[in-house]
């Protein structure tokens, strides 16, 4: 049994369902009284509480919804009996006797053998029982929706005891399932609790963990009252809410907590749908308040005060949420003619004029370093959001061109290495989006040409970083391994459709690799850096073809560059089996007398590593 429950706890859905089927009659004996069902439930909880939750998650597949509802109500009676038992014990401790006989009789009806093993002080068992009630309700919620009488009966029964449960079960693990249980009921059925939810959210402190507010927000969204959260957040974003001034209640403004609430709403799809269902006027108000972060960040960058760290972090979070909310509003209201992408384009213009200059600032003073860090975070957040816009198909050709313009300005500043990984992801999305859209061929050619130009600037930026700050440069190369591979893979996959881009990227890549190995040879090093290996592992055949064309046209010349070509051929041979192109490259190299005369040893090494080619 222990082995089966352990499997049930951790195994996949198909296996878990088979285990539930095997154990169902043991822990849910439908032919026996309902009190026995509850006793078996408690037994299963005490054996393995996680397996118990999994068991009741699939129990609805093996019995009727009526039995599931009966078990919920039986667990409710069990909890009530435990509470009554604790109250009676407390009463006897305070008073020697007394007590109404009628109450005693009612209690006896609810007391079973479970009272000998259960106590409200056993919070693990109490929490597990509450969690199982929630799991059971969720499993039959569709059936309850089709049976209004049964649903109203269940709501009435649980609404009657919920206030008492909140008083008795104060442990966090008990409170969470109670709040979820409350969310299944209309707020009018539990007025004491429903009227206190916003107050609970308002009274939380800045920096409160997500677990403190997530269940409350989920509950409000389920009730369709997400507008109350928006009002609270907007109040905190403004300095002096009129309502509070009138009634003379001093409330601390908590913009950080407001951002926590808005971010949680935007991050979770169900809650996001509730948020976007709010009237458009309120959404625009929220967007406007979040957009004020640009002014805050701009003023921080213009000052020399270095003590605004928390304020700048709040501003950065608000700016990121402003950009994200713009995407969701564009997706929802695009058919109504409202262009929220224009706000992102205006943000790009703002970044070019007011943010990029700060990343050009030199020096390591605290103020300059802090300003540069803020500027980099703003640009990073903007590029990430714009990449997502293109990925989901919302960014048109003009939007993509403006993004490339902003990115080129950042990279040409010489200090744009921080954004290269996300920028490569954006270039990949632009290529795929431009090929998926039906746009003019000339406009597509211009766009892809800009992509190729920006890619060249990216490699130049990486090279400068390696030359000036080698350790940081190597860290940058490691961080861009995956986005670079995805970008090259996309270029290679679409090489027949965008031949000019394919050739341009390969030429840029080849020049970068030859230059890198050339630099390595000049320093008398024998080990290729990670960047060369990363480049070559994706495009071996295309790379060899491009290399051969460069040799034929004598674009590669000079002793070190030709030696670098030999190293490239050796490296590719170690990873692939493109014998014909390698042989042609090898033959072209043999025609260079200066290499043949001055580098006999490298060629003999090549013959050792490529025995098949030496025979050819």
UniProtKB/TrEMBL annotation:
Protein name from the UniProt record: Condensin-2 complex subunit G2
Q: Name one GO cellular component term.
A: condensin complex
Q: Which domain of life is it from?
A: Eukaryota
Q: Which GO terms describe its biological process?
A: mitotic sister chromatid segregation
